[in-house]
Structures
1.
Amino acid sequence: MFCSVFQKAVGLLVIPLYTRLMQPEQYGQYAVFLSYYSIVSVFTSLGLYNYVVNNGIIKYGDKKDAFVTSLAGLIICNTFIYVILYFIFQNQWLNFTGITTWIMAALFIECIFMPCYELWSAKLRFEYQYKPIIKTAICTCLLIPAISLPLIIVCEEKGAAAIWGRVIGYSIVGLFALVNLIKADNTLYKKSYWHYALKFNLPLLPHFLAIILLNSADKIMVERICGADKAGIYSLAFSLSLAFQFVNQAINASLVPYIYLKLKSKIYDGIKEISLSLLFVIACLNILLVLIAPEIIVILGTEEYKEACYIIPSVAITNILLFIFNLFVNIEYFYEENKYIPMVTVLCAVFNIGVNSIVIKQFGYLAAGYTTLATYLLYALGHCLLMMKACHKHKIDVKEIYDIRNIIKIVMSCIIISFCVLNIYDDGYLRTLIIFIIILYLIFYIKKIKSF
């Protein structure tokens, strides 16, 4: 978990270099590429490195190596189908997105190798083989900046240089992961594995796509409505969100095997306590982010990016809600109660796009952050209801798994605190005093907090 957080933290640390080496328009190009990659990779990977890999590892037991390698084979095969489709409809795609063939080549390369790395990591996490993941993560941390920064410095097209630097780095890591998967078992194709994976994941495709739209549509809409420079400023604020989302994902990736094994054994003690403790930690980290948002934006960007700090409170609450969503959806996926998951996610994505199309034009690009917050409130609520439905169907008392009442209390407290802090962003002394008081409180109650 800490290794994954460290890996993304290094990625966050290079942002000040990116924002100083690139104009907002160029950084916006890089950010929009990441958004399009997120969307296209849903279709090429089918989301196979998500929950189905965990379910398959439990289902196939001793054959898990063959199962995971076959998922890599399915992803590679499917990606080449989309490469062929791209060349057939190349002009239409260029007119719609403005993305050149060279950038699309980079996108498809990452669509092949990055999911292989995710599959390999998921298998090792489930087996608690942390050492290979740590070594690979450290190499990735060093490799991508080492490739990207020289390219950005020497190239005139700095946005494209940043994109290719990222793709080359992840491709090297992904190729290493693919080789290791094949070494463990070279079963790139087995009909029963492909059938199980497709049966599980194809109905979830609208869900995965809607998640990406929730994460990416606002940036694309800001670029289209307000321009690439505003998209760059907006994306800088949400790069902090991505950093914390990676924390969420790292914690969840480590938590999923624990929860799955508890649910399989029908011994639920510990799930509620650990989940609530982790939520409390996530909430504290995000409140700290809100308190020091103006200073972080100054460090990460230049004077041109200073408006980004006003998006941070909405970003922080969204991060907390995403962690809560993961807690709920883990239960839904374990019991394979995924019938209604796409419906909730698609409705939230439609809500987000519809409201953004109005508020961005009416109130400017900063309003998109608060529309996203409202969307994720609905999102977490919808999956809470689905999780309760799954527990009721399998005759499990929800109170044995999660403390819903205290989860709501933590979220409401964070919302109130965040929007109170928003009004004192111009008063650095007052925010410093609040941070000092919090530190004193933590020191005074350190024993109680450690116990919790």
2.
Amino acid sequence: MKIYKAAFESWRFDFAAYGKTEAEAIATLKKGLIRHAAGYDIEPDWWHDYAGDIYTVEITLGACYRDNTPILGATE
């Protein structure tokens, strides 16, 4: 089974959200960034200038990842 991780790394925080599709993961991340803004009493669109820094990773459940890349090869 595959899921998607959307991530954004700001200078103070690392944000991540997950979804069944890439679009769902990104939408969930954006909602979280808006909730973060409310909690810190900052403009809800603070992250719009950095929207290009949002990235996604396809995740296979049961796989091991190193730096967002699956580790492939023989196992014991």
3.
Amino acid sequence: PAALLDADSSEKVDCDTLQATGHANVFALGDASNAQTANGKHADAQVRFLAPAMQDRLAGRTMPTYKADDTFVFAVTLGRYRGTGQVGSWRLWGWIIRMAIGKHMGTDYAPEIAAGNRTMTEKKW
């Protein structure tokens, strides 16, 4: 419903718990919510927060508080052997991008993500 959306058509959420504003049993994360900018790093952190927090909620315990990390992280490959990126105010060198993502473009662990065995950053969550 339109009452749940902000001006950008994102779900309005409480940034401390990722609960929809005015609805204690509705949660939104990633690019569906207005908690943070829509990128994979934030969605990954929100999933890792919300999975155990939902167990607390269902058990009637107090939910923990989500602590947003808004450090700017960006990396892009420019072909197989080149790339560029930034972490905070630091520029990443092309060889770091090649070693981190240029070799496989993330496809080496895509089956584990699809199976729910890992997130972008956590292997055994």
4.
Amino acid sequence: MSTPSRLLRALAERARRVAATGDSGSSTAELTLITPMLVMLLLLVVLCGRLVSAQIDLDAAASAGARAASLARTEAAARTGADRAARDTLAARGATCQNATVTLTGSLTPGGAVTVRVSCQVPLGDLVLLTVPGSRTVEAQATSPVDQWRAAIS
């Protein structure tokens, strides 16, 4: 008898035995082995969602801050307005940020532009099974034009 026919006969016999007895618990073993990986994947999705949510919140805060600064008449009012608008936006959106900083650059000259940069720390340490250390800094900036037809008051 040739080797290929012996191999085919052995495979056919094995297939008959498996069909007769079934898998008998192999799906339980597979589920037990794959569950930790599925949990880790779910936590990774939560991590990415937290970072994306924080980025969206910071983009909105930077935009609100830039708009408030561009409407101000003095540099001091622009800084105060940008800081207040950015922090109020973060608070209203329930951002997971810690230690938010708001910086303003540019000038209030008619036809100019002001840029607001907002950065904060997003905590990641509470995702215990992923063992992601500490936090991550997320930043956003927005620029808003100053109306060229308005008069600046010094």
